[in-house]
Specification:
By secondary structure, this protein is α+β, with helices and mostly antiparallel strands. It has one domain: SH3 type barrels. About 15% of the residues lie in helices and about 50% in strands. The chain contains one helix and six strands; from the N terminus they run ββββββα. It has a six-stranded antiparallel sheet with strand order 4-3-2-1-5-6. The radius of gyration is 11 Å and the shape is globular.
Amino acid sequence: MDSHILVNAGGHCFAGALQKADENGVVLKQSEKSGIMVRIPLELCSYVIHVSGERYSGKEELTAFFNRILA
């Protein structure tokens, strides 16, 4: 499954390839060239949109999605 997602956190959007997700938050790699990584605390994630167009929100739904995409 493609790991590229958009995360909305408090009205701010972050896009990139999902690298890691746990109780501390979500880690995205925003640029292959520069290697920019960003960490977003899970409690700030309003919703996530996968590159397929699917939208996920709520802690349980987000956790299940992250586990599936990182499997």
